[in-house]
Amino acid sequence: MNIKxxxxxxxxxxxxxxxxxxxxxxxxRACEIACIKKHSWKNNIDIxxxxxxxxxxxxxxxxxxxxxxxxxxxxxxxxxxxPYCYFACIAGAIRIEEGNMIFEEDKCTHCYSCVMxxxxxxxxxxxxxxxxxxxxxLCSDEKIPPCVRVCPTRxxxxxxxxEFKKLLKGRKEKCIx
Amino acid sequence: MHYLIIxxxxxxxxxIEGIRKIDKEGEITLISEEKYPPYARCLIxxxxxxxxxxxxxxxxxxxxxxxxxxxxxxxxxxxxxNAKNKNIILNDGEKISFDRMLIATGSVSQRLDCKGEEKxxxxxxxxxxxxxxxxQMVEKCEKAFVFGGxxxxxxxAYGLNKIGVDVEMVVKSSQLFSRFLNKxxxxxxxxxxxxxxxxxxxxxxxxxIYGNKEITGIRFDNGEEKKAQLGIIGKGVRANISFLxxxxxxxxxxxxxxxxxxxxxYDIFSAGDVAETEDLxxxxxxxxxxxxxxxxxxxxxxxxxxxxxxxxPGSIAGNSAEFFGLPVISLGEVKETExxxxxxxxxxxxxGYSYKRFILKNNTLIGVVLIKDVEDAGVYLALIRAKVNLxxxxxxxxKPWFNYGRIKDLIEIENGFRESxxxxxxxxxxx
Lengths: 177, 431
Ligand SMILES: Cc1cc2nc3c(=O)[nH]c(=O)nc-3n(C[C@H](O)[C@H](O)[C@H](O)COP(=O)(O)OP(=O)(O)OC[C@H]3O[C@@H](n4cnc5c(N)ncnc54)[C@H](O)[C@@H]3O)c2cc1C
Fold this sequence. Notes:
By secondary structure, chain A is of the alpha+beta class. Chain A has 5 helices and 6 strands, in the order E-H-E-E-H-E-E-H-H-E-H.
């Protein structure tokens, strides 16, 4: 194992996360596509796994649209402050340090414990290829994650809770997550 | 405030995390018998195979303990606990007093209970030292046996198989994983593992291990004798409480704790494999000796030690593993008992080995087994934790369209969070 190449993803600074204003979502799945593009090796959704290039397994959406009552619901990591995936991870790959969630991909050993424990079902593992678990990392290398950036209806919102609540002030029907 | 933690693995480490979340100043001392800082015990197989070195297993970098201001005492054992006088004695005679203490001494292997068990070449499979010793032996080993068909046994067999040792598992009961898989699920796994080169024999047990000092062979209860140079015990665990015998602490299977993980002494807490908490599903005292429970308990105990009052909802049997590329997840009570309803689906076709099983009692989900297609397992675990009525949702269990969106309301409604829909406290839904 190449321990020198630790890839640390600093997440959820100031408890930032992606909030969802559910009624706005029209299920266009632009966020899914933006996510796949961002995480495919060649930054292109047309070449990659679908053409049989298994090196491009990263080209998997970390956000997905599911059905929720009569709504479409974007589902992605909630960056829980005390996440079950952390408690379940037998390898110490997921941990919280100084308020940041750290996912050290090199340490992941493909044991499915995070998949077993995430109540939202937003951590994925490929069945037959030994790759680290895949989960939303808030794209800390970008100012705004691509999924939020491309959302045409502004369903997705990046920020902390206070900022999000301010945005919803005065709205009668709130259906958020 | 001086916090003392005995036992440095999952529960002990998270004790530090919990304490430091609340109390940034208090003094913390962590004592562990092993000479390594907290490490990933479940991955010692990888150390056996050679993909990980000892350091790779460590759960935190060494700077972490400095940053957290933790005084690590490694390689020393606590031999006596004076609960009344609030001090402990180490094996070298040193006495250390504490204000609050966390007992996180984990578990020890069950014994084999057969003649010749103490012979050289018979190992437990619990820590780095065990694996180091096994590694010294494998060179001259032609045939190895693993006793016991639990998770630890299979991990040991898997590791030996990977480094090219001819290994056979012998299991006393009639199936693998009798603790957390039902018969038909375990048969699928058994076939798969055998297909990948590990021989498994069920319904036999060793009666004698022979050889001069080192083992040379094993006699089984069906009369058969087989040559062997290595044997590994994987027969389950029991709480490591022998050193607490005269401590006035309330002991049963493990250290008995209340919902705040506090023992019968106000200042002493316990967490992990050594602590006897409630089982979340049955509500009865139980130990589920698993990593997830140990980490969560350690964390909550730490928080409570530092003065907060957070109750622990109960431990849960949740196993996940992957053998030769086939993932298996088992949650809660998976065996058939009275008054349960079972929903089962199976696909042993070309793609094969896909299996799903749901166990409901009074319309609440109490157990799940998933093989191969394990996506969304955590959502099922959330349903088990929430104990919600699933009468109208039975037909979506295990279906490809099952996901969090389908049951989002259910979890919220049942717990009175529908109106407040507060995003920050989502974890509270499951309490
Ligand atoms: C090979 C293997 C594979 C496993 N795989 C999985 C898995 O895949 N999933 C899963 O959920 N669980 C798994 N487990 C179980 C998991 O490792 C345990 O549940 C977990 O380690 C419990 O943590 P703990 O901190 O309570 O105790 P332990 O890990 O047992 O640690 C206790 C520590 O305390 C020290 N100690 C004991 N007595 C004293 C004393 N008197 N003084 C000082 N120090 C002392 C011990 O040396 C030890 O370091 C596995 C276990 C093994 C052995």
